[in-house]
């Protein structure tokens, strides 16, 4: 685990508002950001239960799949990924995420999108046990009680100076941990990467306080969707601050926060902390798609 630090963002905002970003993306070279936090206690639990295999779920460019594969290899635990989309079976070499996971020892089971929706059904899981034997189950996106426990360690004493803490939201585990460990005077703002209001119910399963809100205006059309405006924003942010942002989660959240500042959403003198949840491994795959669409690619280095 590498030390995490808060990096000040050198933009002159109106109303004396200040912005910093917690560089959780630097916590580990391959298991970065919230994936490190979510897996920490799940890996300890798997070892305590003497499980030799982790089984989890994800899509073609899943940060979670990549992180579980590497963490399993690092900890000496076998990994199995149930991948959404049976058409990906013969496209592993074309997919940077799946190729990385396979190179780190993960075995794949490709299932149709229809079957994938059954991933929480008892009969579906029993069939997987019949096929693969005993395993420790990590949910899609990694969110469970142990994941939330790990995410409760993101904020530290030095973060008490911030009035707002902002993060992207996928399955709700990261924001739940932030909600639970925030101080009474702090407001947690979540920026969903998916369309729909179902996330509030998911978060309420784990969140113990009411100090939060979801802002659903910055998903750019839905999960995995990007446009030229977002790409240009992410590249400009990198040029100015030397902080790479992923286009699925953190990039959209940072765009949203800066847009809200321009619209006077935050009171004067607000101190805002952005949580960088990692996910940079997905940029290579996104750039393949962007080239196909004749759009600019995302920059991750000078």
UniProtKB/TrEMBL annotation:
The modification N6-(pyridoxal phosphate)lysine is found at residue 35. The keyword Cytoplasm does not apply. Residues 19-278 form the Tryptophan synthase beta chain-like PALP domain. InterPro entries: ACCD_DCysDesulf, TrpB-like_PALP, TrpB-like_PALP_sf. Keywords: Pyridoxal phosphate. GO terms for molecular function: D-cysteine desulfhydrase activity. Belongs to the ACC deaminase/D-cysteine desulfhydrase family. This is 1-aminocyclopropane-1-carboxylate deaminase.
């Amino acid at each position: 685990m590498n030390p995490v630090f808060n990096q000040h963002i050198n933009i002159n905002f109106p109303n004396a508002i200040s912005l910093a970003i917690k560089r959780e993306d630097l916590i580990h070279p391959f298991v970065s950001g919230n994936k490190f936090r979510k897996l920490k206690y799940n890996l300890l639990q798997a070892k305590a239960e003497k499980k030799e295999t982790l089984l989890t779920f994800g899509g073609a460019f899943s940060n979670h799949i990549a992180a579980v594969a590497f963490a399993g290899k690092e900890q000496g635990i076998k990994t199995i990924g149930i991948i959404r989309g049976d058409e990906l079976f013969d496209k592993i070499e074309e997919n940077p995420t799946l190729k990385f996971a396979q190179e780190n020892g993960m075995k794949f089971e490709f299932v149709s999108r229809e079957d994938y929706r059954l991933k929480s059904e008892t009969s579906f899981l029993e069939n997987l046990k019949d096929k693969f034997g005993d395993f420790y189950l990590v949910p899609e996106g990694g969110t469970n009680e142990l994941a939330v426990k790990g995410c409760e360690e993101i904020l530290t004493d030095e973060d008490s100076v911030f009035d707002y803490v902002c993060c992207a939201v996928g399955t709700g585990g990261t924001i739940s941990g932030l909600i639970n460990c925030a101080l009474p005077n702090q407001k947690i703002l979540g920026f969903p990467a998916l369309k729909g209001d179902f996330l509030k119910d998911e978060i309420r399963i784990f969140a113990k306080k009411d100090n939060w809100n979801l802002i659903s205006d910055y998903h750019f059309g839905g999960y995995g969707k990007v446009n030229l405006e977002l790409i240009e924003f992410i590249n400009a942010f990198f040029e100015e601050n030397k902080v790479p942002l992923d286009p699925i989660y953190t990039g959209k959240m940072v765009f949203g926060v800066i847009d809200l500042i321009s619209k006077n959403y935050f009171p004067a003198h607000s101190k805002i902390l952005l949580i960088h949840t990692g996910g940079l491994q997905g940029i290579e795959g996104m750039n393949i798609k962007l080239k196909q669409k004749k759009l600019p690619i995302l920059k991750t280095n000078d």
